[in-house]
Write a structure and sequence with these properties.
about 260 residues, alpha/beta, 2 domains, globular
Length: about 260
């Protein structure tokens, strides 16, 4: 990474001495040492409100039924969202890349991070009829995105024949459903497996591996998800027959063959 970039690190773990907190701090240190600007949203330290409700939308009145998508778009476009949401949206707009750092809990992100996603990526900001189409050069195009996640289970259990399913499939809602839906280019996730009790030598190895991934944040090839406007889908947003590689199924249908 030779040119100064702006990176937002969103961290979601309740313990400041946790592995996740250490990885977030390591990323910030590495990126700043490389000359980049970094902002951090430590959601637990911020006491981030995880639930969407009417308080998020000051333009909503109690005599009307709350339609979250309509209310969020109306107040986003009117620039009257709840101040905490508006502040996080400004960080995302500012950033050239977004890094999400979290532990995998019940095959997903912690509720506080899901709440950050739910509240920050409003209609009119992350998607909407007045914005570029999703799954393409969308509303947040031009940004890189990286998941850095810790997993308690062993790596073999998150493979094609592993009992938990492939890690790419488990993270598909974030990689494809958040990042690529909004136009951000997701990189292959950085995963620390068997992380419940990480000895010092494995932690050092994880830091070295993470440093390499951070060094390639703006140069590594992103996951080649298919574009909605690239001719692979019909008007019903269904993949056209015969486009996929032979034997491809599941989420891999929506990834272009590499090479």
């Amino acid at each position: 990474m030779n040119h100064q970039k702006k990176i937002l690190v969103v961290s979601a773990h309740p313990e400041s001495r946790s592995l996740n907190a250490s990885l977030a701090a390591f990323a910030v240190e590495e990126l700043r040492a490389a000359g980049h600007e970094v902002q951090v949203s430590d959601l637990y330290a911020m006491k981030w409100k995880a639930t969407v409700d009417a308080d998020d939308f000051p333009g909503h009145t109690a005599d009307r039924r709350l339609h979250v998508m309509a209310a969020s778009e109306r107040d986003t476009l009117a620039q009257r969202l709840s101040p905490d949401i508006a502040a996080e949206q400004e960080k995302v707009r500012w950033a050239d890349a977004v890094i999400l750092q979290f532990p995998m809990w019940w095959f997903s992100a912690p509720a506080i991070l899901k709440g950050w996603i739910d509240r920050v990526f409003t209609a009119g900001f992350g998607y909407g009829p007045a914005l570029p189409p999703p799954y393409s050069e969308g509303a947040l195009a031009g940004r890189r995105a990286l998941v850095s996640v810790t997993v308690g289970a062993r790596e073999s259990s998150f493979t094609d024949r592993g009992i938990h399913g492939r890690i790419a499939d488990v993270l598909y809602p974030v990689q494809h459903g958040l990042f690529w839906f909004t136009g951000m280019a997701p990189l292959e996730p950085f995963v620390v497996y068997d992380s419940n009790d990480l000895p010092e030598d494995r932690f050092a190895a994880a830091e070295q591996a993470y440093a390499r991934r951070l060094d390639g944040l703006f140069t590594d090839d992103p996951v080649p998800f298919r574009s909605l406007v690239g001719g692979d889908y019909d008007h019903d947003m269904r993949l056209l027959a015969g486009v996929e590689a032979l034997g491809t199924s599941g989420p891999d249908l929506h990834v272009r063959p590499r090479g």
